[in-house]
Design brief:
Length: 122
């Protein structure tokens, strides 16, 4: 079904539709919306558990972690975006901070995509 929906979207962008291909199955209008499984997956993290993590660990943040957390969350909630380079010695809490940022954003149903550049860590 998902593949069909994607094909339908491509066709519509070009002024066409699966409707024209009588032998093809049809995509219902209702399933055409909110149908991207990749997006649905990213929005379906267990929010209660994320909120628990947030409530448990957010108060533990150091002043420095809190400052970075607030700055990044503000950029997200205000839709400003930005590029932030968080650095520090091993064991200083970068991953801890990253998990809290992910939990804060995902618990609202918003999307966090983790990516990594290979060859950078040493
Ligand atoms: N503010 C904090 N309160 C309690 N525990 C913390 C805090 N910050 C970090 N930790 C804990 O310290 C340990 C090391 O932190 P973390 O793994 O986030 O460091 P890191 O900077 O990502 O390290 P590395 O660069 O080696 O990957 C983890 O067990 C983490 O849960």
């Amino acid at each position: 079904m998902y593949a069909l929906q994607e094909i339908e979207k491509l066709l519509r962008r070009n002024g066409d539709s699966l409707e024209r291909f009588t032998k093809m199955p049809k995509v219902s209008e209702s399933s055409a919306n909110d149908s991207n499984v990749l997006i649905l997956d990213e929005r379906s993290y267990p929010r209660e558990a994320l909120l628990e993590t947030l409530e448990r660990d957010a108060p533990k943040m150091t002043d420095e972690q809190r400052k970075i957390f607030d700055e990044i969350i503000d950029a997200v909630t205000e839709g400003r975006g930005g590029t932030f380079f968080v650095y520090g010695f091993g064991g200083t809490g970068k991953t801890f901070l990253w998990k809290l940022l992910s939990a804060a954003i995902r618990s609202k149903g918003d999307i966090v995509l983790n990516v990594a550049s290979s060859g950078i860590a040493s």
